[in-house]
Each structure stands twice: as C-alpha cells, then as structure tokens.
Amino acid sequence: TPDTVAVVGLGAMGRALAARLLDTGHGVTAWNRTPGRDADLGVRASATVAEAVAASPLVVACLLRHSSVHETLDPVAGRLRGKALVNLTTTTPNEARELAGWAAGHGIDYLDGAILAVPDMIGSPGAQVYYSGSRAVFDRFRTVLDAWATSTFDGSDAGRASLIDLAMLSGMYQMFAGFLHGAAMVGSEGMSATDFAARATPFISAMTDGFAGFAQVVDGGDYTVAGQQSLDFSDLSDIVRASEEQGVNSATLAVVQALVSRQIATGHGSEGFARLYESFRARAVR
Ligand code: NDP
Questions:
Q1: How many angstroms does the Cα of residue 83 sit away from the middle of ligand 1?
Q2: Which amino acid residue places its CA nearest to atom 18 of ligand 1?
Q3: 71 lines ligand 1 (CB under 6 A)
Q4: Superfamily, domain 164-281
Q5: Over the stretch 184-239, which tens digit does the pLDDT of each residue have?
Q6: For ligand 1, is residue 10 a contact (CB within 6 Å)?
Q7: Dihedral of the alpha carbons of 37, 43, 48, 54, in degrees to the nearest 10
C-alpha cells in the first residue's frame, strides 16, 4: 500500500473516493482543475497535475469524461511513466481501450474502473467497482481499491469493465423511464407518483427474478422451450393504447411494442419474450 495516493479530479465522486482513502488511513495528494474543491476534505492539494502525480506510484483519475482525461494527463504523460494509473472516469469500452493504448505507449500501467455506486455509497458494502486492464495494478493496489467498494476484476481487456457497466446502466435507465411513464399514466388521473412508487417497487423488484429465466433461454439458444410467456401474450398494444387514451406519451413503450410486433410478424409469436434478444442483436430491427 502506498503512503500517499494521487487523486486527479475532486468532483462529487473524486471527493468521495479521496475522503474514503483518508478515512482508511491513506494519505491523499489531489489536484482539481478548479481550485478550492478540496475545502474541508483534508487532502494535500496540489497546484498542478504534475505535482500531484509526482506524489505517488498510484494515480487515480476521476474526471468528467474521456476527453477530460486526455486534456488533464497528456501534458504529464512523461511523468506517469512507470506508475499505475487507475481511471475511474466513465468511458465507453473503446475509449477505455484507447486510453490503455495511450498509457502503454508512455510506459504507464493502466487499470480502467467502472463505478456502480453514487458518491454516498463509496466505502459501503453495496458499492461495486468493476476493473479491467492491468492485473498487476489490480493486485498490487487491491487494499486501496477495496477501501472504496467491492472490487471485481474482469480481465485484461481494458474495455470490458466499462462494457458491463454501461450494459447495466442500459437496464437501469430503461427501467427508470418505464417507472416515470407509468407514474405519468396514473398521474393523468391524479394518483401521486409517491403512491405509484409504493405499488411499483415490490412488483418491479419481483419481476427482476425473471432475468435468470430469460438468460437461460437466451444462452440455450432455443426460444421455443416450454414454460415461457409467449410473445403473442406479451403484446403491448393495450398498454400503448391506454397510455394514448390518457394523453400520455407512449414513445418508449411503442419502441418495445414495435420489436414484439416485428417478431410476431416474422412468425415467432408463439416463442418466449426472450426472443427480443435477437432484435437487439440484429442491430437493424427485424
Ligand atoms: P462532477 O461533475 O461532480 O465532477 C467532474 C470533475 O471533472 C470535476 O472535478 C471537474 O473539475 C473535472 N473536469 C471536467 N472536465 C474537465 C477537464 N476538461 N479537465 C480537467 N478536469 C475536468 O462529476 P462526478 O465526480 O460525479 O463524476 C466523475 C466521473 O465519475 C464521471 O465520469 C462519472 O460518470 C463517474 N461516475 C459518477 C457517479 C456519480 O454518481 N456521481 C457514479 C458512477 C460514475 P472542475 O471542478 O474544475 O469542474
């Protein structure tokens, strides 16, 4: 464990990461583009990125996006040579791979991380961070990583952790949009979103048990296996119509309905809902 960890970026997440390091007995030297973000935090603040990265063999970056990482670290690439860089900035898989290539070109040992938590959760057991890239960095600095969250290593392809992270967020955002759409439906007749949330949470939570069943069918490659709810039965047109009758925008629902209709039209109506996997896999709707 290094005496000091260099943290680059003290936004909401960077501050939470730095605070947790301090809480667990690590020293932190930090840089942030806008000075003063370290107020009350207790880190050693650096005036320049160069000064911060010089403070530790381990540099942790948590910036806004891929381009911010380059803007911040390109000028100090030479000073990062031989060091470990853990990048917790959200990027696409290809952006993570690009950064891994850039790092390799400068003799920097690169580990990409994807945080599945909000800042308040950092340091609690429910927080998760997926990592991919340098196994050596993951192993060497495991104590630091484990201070933040449950750490999972997903292999040497630097893009892997972010792929899984963004796939999970796809599910999350579509679920959130579905909840808000439902809230607008009942809201059209005066039911509060709070009352709707009280009904929706246990139901939707129970429905996530269905993931494993869908997964089994998808991985088995046979959408006709018995015991599934058929696509014919899963037709969403009643929901779309009800939404429209209530004067509520049905755009997101209509997209799912279109995928179902297409599968039915091409002769897959008696197959299970898991068949939609093929619609996504095809890139073009079919
Ligand atoms: P904030 O908006 O709170 O902070 C953004 C940080 O990036 C600030 O330190 C900001 O500096 C810095 N920054 C932005 N652009 C540049 C630039 N061009 N050059 C240098 N520094 C720059 O975001 P968060 O801290 O919440 O998020 C940071 C990363 O963590 C993001 O990639 C986000 O997706 C990821 N993340 C965040 C989660 C969350 O719940 N907050 C959850 C999971 C991942 P300045 O103060 O000068 O503006």
A1: 22
A2: 68
A3: yes
A4: N-(1-d-carboxylethyl)-l-norvaline Dehydrogenase; domain 2 (1.10.1040.10)
A5: 999 999 999 999 999 999 999 999 999 999 999 999 999 999 888 899 998 898 99
A6: yes
A7: -150
